[in-house]
Amino acid sequence: MDPTKIDPVAQAYIRNNLIPTSASGLLTPNGKAYDDEYTLKFDDNATAKDHITLTLDKFHNPQEYPFLPGLAPNVPGFPGLSTFGDYFGSVAYTRLFSASTINEFHLTAQRNDNHLNYPGTTLPGPSQLGAAITPDQTTGPPQLLFNGGPQIGFNLNGPAHFTDTTYMFGDTFTKTLSRAP
């Protein structure tokens, strides 16, 4: 094939080794997940009428992925990093005033802090490859999607950062009344 007939952008992808190849025809992934989690539970009968409970939970899970089966990228060379940080805490206090009177107080907080699909390496962007596009944020080369075949480029759903925090409190006072016969 005459090299002058190959599109300059395609030549730039080839020159920058952005088209994965394998002599055997097999592409092997090498992803990693680093689970870091703990749960702490504390219960204390402070007195015969006072009970305190504390629960703390942390789940931190950074994941490095070489590619995503069924999604872009589905070939090596465009690694991504997603970090999931989930935190939870709860405090409960129960006071027994009498056999018929009780007060329960609960305070809960949870936070999800997720960083999704950040590029795991620095690769040339559209302007460096000769592609005439101007993305809002340059994260690497534009995606090349081949029908039923390779999907080359970083995940389009990132980088993204989602944070959600929820607080809840409740105080329940219960008194049981009965009528004497």
Detailed description of the structure:
By secondary structure, this protein is mainly beta. It has one domain (3-173). Helix content is 7%, strand content 48%. The chain contains two helices and eight strands; from the N terminus they run H-E-E-E-E-E-H-E-E-E. Strands 1, 2, 3, 4, 5 and 8 form a six-stranded antiparallel β-sheet that branches. The radius of gyration is 28 Å and the shape is rod-shaped.
Q: N-to-C terminal Cα separation, in Å?
A: 104 Å
Provide the β-strand percentage band: over 45%
Order of helices and strands: HEEEEEHEEE
Number of domains: 1
Overall spatial form? rod-shaped
**Main sheet overview:** 6 strands, antiparallel
Sheet/helix structural class: mainly beta
Tally of alpha and pi helices: 2
Radius of gyration: 28 Å
Helix content: under 10%
Overall pLDDT metric: 88
Q: Outline the low-pLDDT stretches.
A: none
Q: How many β strands by DSSP?
A: 8
